[in-house]
């Protein structure tokens, strides 16, 4: 979706931009690991994470982060640092180089094709909660480093910044040139034809502010005012697979709709109810409000779970919480209640947040005298940003709070007077949505879009030219540079001369707009002659001669098996997607699923196609023109490999999108390899956790590609992402009752590549983990 930007000049009498400056002092000692920040000097910084571009198209991102880690003597450190990305180069400063011209970076490196960036979630650092981002080399995971941000929204923005830098590095490599030019990005590279670049004016320096400056960070990160919001670039629908829900509005309370899933009720699956509201705030802000355990803040919107205490936290995306409430506000009960529940959260690639809440038991909180232990209803929060009209500075998001009810109780509440339902804990939980909406409405600072764009007609005097990189001979990857330990004392002796330069600036509102439509028309079958070589006659093969360790199912009621559904249950990009974001129903896959293996392995195993047991090595397999092997490496005890084999009856057309993917670079493959999941049948909370949104696997987890002979193997290491590990752990707990559909495709980004087509599908019917066979058995 193209982004339209409105230009507006705001200058004071002296020609200066009206830029908000924050005054404050930083506390803590440098390098001792006991405080956030370093030095006792005064700061007066712009509150930015920013995006810029010089006159010739090199984009820049910069802003304040925390550099965290362990130094050479084993002490943990957490330093406030200014991070600067220009092209594919990354630099780290102790002070803002825009306000301290001539300052030299304390660390610098390049963003290469093997750099992986992973969100590790929330972590307690020096008595404050930070959101940690890890960098590592996917070929050598011992090379790694970490930075941290005060909010999930800022962490997301930095993830996008590094993704943009990787795209620019890939674009540079695709233009060819000498080895020296590949190591040092040229300032005259024309990015005008890159889809992400088209959305900005050309030939100006562009800045996008996100978040706050160092003083606000040092005051700690519990303040919820003024978060940056998403860039509004969202696809026109919330899911890419068609779900079998049938929602019916059963009540409206204080402007909040309460809906019941009639389809689940008809199927005898119990009652699933949700409250939905449109809120004037960004998804990042609402996510922070819901996760915040500060009692004073929760008292303002939460009538039930306001008194909460963190018991334990795991892997940055999962914690256990203890809470109490006084039921007299709901009923005439005299005994107080307490409860323990777990919270598991993750952010999708579209910026939407999902929070799962389930009853839990924890040894630190046994039953308490004077309290009756209550089991709260399993529930989920889903928070999705909504595109706003052009010119608006108010962010909007859709909040959905979904609860599971006992069928008998729900039917009783529906049949009797509404007052009985309004005196129940489930009603109070659903009313949290109403409380959130009113709380945010009463706090304007939570609603205002804080992200702005600044265009500068003059370049800042910052030591970031390409010649600087060439002179210093920068060849280290960024994870090497950032993981080099804490700063030395000599780094404190940097010049702090004030440039006293006034630059003329124009402030812009960073707005975007999109009109999205959902077209449920069916896609035509993929053009086989376009993707496969039309000059070669098709090879006829009998699918029954290929057998994997997981058998093919007889019908939909069969268990522990696989089938190959059509693509009609998935929504893919239509021919006009770049203009109107319209998606269409998928058609039959291009490739035929011929077998599935379900292996048990000691450790994650790559290049499985070379194993003697693999059908690729069979005589029949060697006769096939092309085989796509998808090896989904599932982390568990033991580990598993789900191997899917897709065959073509003709060789791949080298000039097609599929051909460019099969024989392309790993960076191109990572940017295009897409999977759409759908839980067709199973526990509703697993459905919400997995979702139905398309995922670029190469950006979410580590993918390795192996091209040889007549096949391409893609090894998908699900365990490489803490979020993916968390979700797959939940799935494995219910896998024997799940029916899972997967669609595999190559994302289309250019008009000539549209409409998209589905490469292959698979339906996994109630797979039993114990049925996996040893690979080396």
From TrEMBL:
Which residues, by range, are in coiled-coil regions? Answer: none
Which domain of life does this protein belong to?
Answer: Eukaryota
Q: Where is the START domain?
A: 247-432
Give the region (Disordered) as residue ranges. Answer: 1-42, 482-503, 533-560
Residue spans with biased composition (Basic and acidic residues)?
1-21
Q: Which Pfam families match?
A: EDR2_C, START
Query: Sorted alphabetically, which PANTHER family does this protein's record hold?
Result: ENHANCED DISEASE RESISTANCE PROTEIN (DUF1336), ENHANCED DISEASE RESISTANCE-RELATED
This protein's name: START domain-containing protein
Q: Which organism is it from?
A: Hibiscus sabdariffa
């Amino acid at each position: 979706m193209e982004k339209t930007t409105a230009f507006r000049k705001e200058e004071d009498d002296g020609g200066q931009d009206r830029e908000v400056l924050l005054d404050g002092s930083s506390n803590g000692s440098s390098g001792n690991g006991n405080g956030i920040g370093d030095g006792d000097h005064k700061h007066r910084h712009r509150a930015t994470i920013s995006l810029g571009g010089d006159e010739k198209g090199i984009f820049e991102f910069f802003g304040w982060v925390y550099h965290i880690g362990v130094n050479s003597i084993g002490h943990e450190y957490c330093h406030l640092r200014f991070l600067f990305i220009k092209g594919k180069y990354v630099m780290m400063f102790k002070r803002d180089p825009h306000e301290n011209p001539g300052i030299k970076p304390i660390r610098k490196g390049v963003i290469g094709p093997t750099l992986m960036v992973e969100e590790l979630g929330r972590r307690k650092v020096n008595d404050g909660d930070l959101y940690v981002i890890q960098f590592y080399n996917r070929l050598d995971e011992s090379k790694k480093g970490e930075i941290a941000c005060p909010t999930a929204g800022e962490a997301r923005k930095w993830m996008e910044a590094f993704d943009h830098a990787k795209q620019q590095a890939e674009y540079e490599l695709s233009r060819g040139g000498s080895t020296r030019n590949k190591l040092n990005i040229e300032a005259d590279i024309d990015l005008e034809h890159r889809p992400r670049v088209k959305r900005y004016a050309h030939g100006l320096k562009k800045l996008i502010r996100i978040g706050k400056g160092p003083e606000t960070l040092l005051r700690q990160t519990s303040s919820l005012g003024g978060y940056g919001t998403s860039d509004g670039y969202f696809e026109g629908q919330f899911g890419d697979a068609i779900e079998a829900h049938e929602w019916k509005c059963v009540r409206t309370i204080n402007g909040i709709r309460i809906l019941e899933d009639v389809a689940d009720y008809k199927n005898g699956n119990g009652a699933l109810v949700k409250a939905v509201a449109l809120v004037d705030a960004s998804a990042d802000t609402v996510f922070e409000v819901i996760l915040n355990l500060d009692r004073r803040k929760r008292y303002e919107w939460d009538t039930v779970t306001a008194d909460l205490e963190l018991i334990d936290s795991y892997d940055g995306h999962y914690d256990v919480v203890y809470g109490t409430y006084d039921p007299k506000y709901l009923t005439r009960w005299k005994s107080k209640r307490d409860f323990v529940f777990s919270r598991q959260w993750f952010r999708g690639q579209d910026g939407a947040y999902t929070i799962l809440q389930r009853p839990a038991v924890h040894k630190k909180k046994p039953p308490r005298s004077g309290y009756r232990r209550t089991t709260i209803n399993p529930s989920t929060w889903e928070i999705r940003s909504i595109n706003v009209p052009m010119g608006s500075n108010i962010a909007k998001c859709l909040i959905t709070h979904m609860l599971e009810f006992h069928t008998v109780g729900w039917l009783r509440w529906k049949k009797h007077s509404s007052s009985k339902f309004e005196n129940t804990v489930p009603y109070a939980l659903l009313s949290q949505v109403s409380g959130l909406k009113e709380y945010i409405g009463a706090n304007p600072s939570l609603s205002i879009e804080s992200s702005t764009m600044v265009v500068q007609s003059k370049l800042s005097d910052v030591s970031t030219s390409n010649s600087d990189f060439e002179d210093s001979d920068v060849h280290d990857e960024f994870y090497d540079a950032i993981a080099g330990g804490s700063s030395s004392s000599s780094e404190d002796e940097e010049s702090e001369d004030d440039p006293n330069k006034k630059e003329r600036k124009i402030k812009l509102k960073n707005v975007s707009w999109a009109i999205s439509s959902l077209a449920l028309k069916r896609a035509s079958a993929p053009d086989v002659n376009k993707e496969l070589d039309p000059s070669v006659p098709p090879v006829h093969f009998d699918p029954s001669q290929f057998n994997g360790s997981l058998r093919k199912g007889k019908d939909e009621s069969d268990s522990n098996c696989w089938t190959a559904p059509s693509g009609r249950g998935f929504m893919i990009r239509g021919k006009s997607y770049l203009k109107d974001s319209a998606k269409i129903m998928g058609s039959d896959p291009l490739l035929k699923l011929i077998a599935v293996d379900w292996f048990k392995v000691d450790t994650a195993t790559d290049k499985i196609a070379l194993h003697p047991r693999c059908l690729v090595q069979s005589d029949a397999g060697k006769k096939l023109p092309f085989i796509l092997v998808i090896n989904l490496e599932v982390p568990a005890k033991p580990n598993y490999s789900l191997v899917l084999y897709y065959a073509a009856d003709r060789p791949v057309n080298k000039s097609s999108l599929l051909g460019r993917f099969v024989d392309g670079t790993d960076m191109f493959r990572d940017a295009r390899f897409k999977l759409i999941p759908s839980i067709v049948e199973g526990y509703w909370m697993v459905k919400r956790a997995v979702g139905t949104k398309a995922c670029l696997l190469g950006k979410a987890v580590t993918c390795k590609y192996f091209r040889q002979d007549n096949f391409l193997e893609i090894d998908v290491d699900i365990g490489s992402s803490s979020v993916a590990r968390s979700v797959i752990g939940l799935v494995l707990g219910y896998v024997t009752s799940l029916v899972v559909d997967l669609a595999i495709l190559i994302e289309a980004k250019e008009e000539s590549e549209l409409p998209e087509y589905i490469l292959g599908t698979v339906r996994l019917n109630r797979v039993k983990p114990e049925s996996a066979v040893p690979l080396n058995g």
